[in-house]
Design a protein that fits this description.
The chain is an alpha/beta fold and 400 residues long. It has helices at residues 19-27, 89-95, 109-120, 140-156, 165-173, 190-200, 204-210, 232-240, 263-273, 289-295, 310-316, 331-334, 349-359, 363-377, 382-396, and strands at 5-11, 31-37, 46-48, 53-55, 67-69, 72-73, 85-86, 100-104, 124-128, 159-162, 181-183, 219-223, 253-257, 278-282, 298-301, 321-325, 341-344. It contains 15 helices and 17 strands. It starts with a strand and ends with a helix.
Length: 400
């Protein structure tokens, strides 16, 4: 029988975006995968701080791959540098005869300990995370700690799995050699979102009608947490500036999906306008979102300090134009200005208003932009992830 790479994967908790990829990796004929989780908080209903409400994902998180929840001291419903306080991974790494340990994220004490445990046992270490040079760290103490942690990782990790251009530059900036970088793009289950968006087409007009939206008017969509970092207020103000005189509502509709601490403030601002073109739809789960992606003409993510923005991957799989700020991590990889959307200066409401006006100036062009988004997604998916992972394992472990 052909040898398999024995691969351990360590991550904080089950993540809805990662589960489909882990199933595919677990099915690879030359990879024997075991996933180790620090916490089980996401497999049940839990309080999401950003959404400000209880959330339970409606997609399977644990099916189709071998996994284990590590023993823990204390609570598992909080994620921080020190929590959960896990133990037992070192023994499991030794007993499992693993070739490599893949760690997702480095902002946890348990993950940093795992690097040392793996190196003592001669196990190769692969690192994947969301960090990018576009993300700033506040305070000299935090900056110093970040530099120290990165020196430790660069010295001890055998390969870095880069999620995109900002991430690649981050590792190079901290001294990683180019030969140790392997592209494993940040992506979602393209097949799932494309299938769900395609099946939503037949119900599009029914959904439009149920929301009280008149036929023919364009739709701008926001779907994310309503917190300061996501800057939903910038989108609302930019939309208001689409009005010819500041009193007449613009022709496009603006739909907000999500919840969070800023929602009541945004609703109050909207109420003062006395317009019917802005609607707040609340939290929608994974299986519900593709119908709204299909309904919209352009999707906007105005965040600052956004590591990536996987919602952009999702909506591009529905074949829609996208607008993001220049502090959204996926911008240099997925958004081609004038081709499938626009990138505006973060926090610049006028720049965002102009991007909205441009993308909606010609709806035939808007549809062409959406088609370009879909083309980009067809080369940015799990196939590319698995190819990058194979390349890293071949380089640092040897042929399977």
């Amino acid at each position: 029988m052909r040898k398999k790479w024995r691969l351990a994967y360590l991550v904080s908790h089950p993540i809805q975006y990662q589960a489909p990829l882990l199933r595919l990796i677990g099915a690879e004929p030359d990879i024997d995968l075991t996933v180790f989780y620090c916490s089980d908080l996401s497999v049940r209903e839990y309080h999401d701080e950003g959404f400000g409400q209880a959330v339970q994902w409606d997609v399977p998180l644990l099916d189709g791959y071998r996994h284990e929840f590590l023993p823990v001291v204390g609570r598992t419903d909080r994620l921080s540098f020190w929590r959960p306080l896990n133990h037992g991974l070192a023994r499991r790494l030794g007993a499992g005869n693993f070739d490599a340990l893949w760690i997702h994220g480095w902002g946890y004490w348990s993950h940093l300990r795992a690097v040392s445990s793996a190196k003592r046992r001669g196990i190769k270490v692969l690192m994947r995370g969301e960090s990018g040079l576009h993300l700033t760290t506040q305070g000299r103490m935090k900056q110093g700690l970040k530099r120290a942690l990165m020196r430790h990782l660069v010295a001890n990790a055998d390969a870095f799995l880069t999620i995109g251009e900002h991430n690649r530059r981050f590792y190079l900036h901290h001294g990683a050699e180019p030969a140790r970088l392997f592209p494993v793009p940040y992506c979602v289950d393209n097949a799932f979102f494309q299938e769900k968006a395609a099946s939503a087409v037949t119900g599009r007009e029914q959904l439009r009608s149920s929301l009280g939206l008149a036929p023919g008017r364009p739709i701008i969509l926001y779907a994310s947490k309503m917190i300061e970092r996501k800057r939903p207020g910038d989108l609302l103000e930019a939309y208001i500036r689409l009005s010819g005189d500041g009193t007449r509502e613009p022709d496009p509709y603006l739909l907000f999906i999500g919840d969070g601490e800023l929602r009541s403030e945004l609703e109050a601002r909207t109420a003062r306008l006395n317009w019917n073109s802005i609607k707040f739809l609340g939290f929608k789960n994974q299986t519900e979102l593709p119908g709204y992606y299909d309904l919209c003409d352009v999707f906007v993510l105005p965040s600052v300090q956004e590591p990536w923005g996987l919602v952009i991957n999702e909506v591009m799989n529905a074949g829609r134009a996208v607008i993001v700020s220049d502090e959204v991590g996926c911008a240099p990889d997925l958004v081609k200005p004038g081709a499938n959307g626009y990138v505006f200066k973060a926090g610049d409401v006028s720049d965002l208003r102009n991007a909205l006006a441009s993308v909606l100036s010609d709806l035939e062009m808007t549809r062409d932009m959406g088609q370009k988004s879909l083309e980009i997604m067809n080369h940015w998916g799990f196939r590319e992830d698995i190819a990058g992972l194979h390349g890293a394992l071949e380089e640092i472990v040897g042929a399977a």
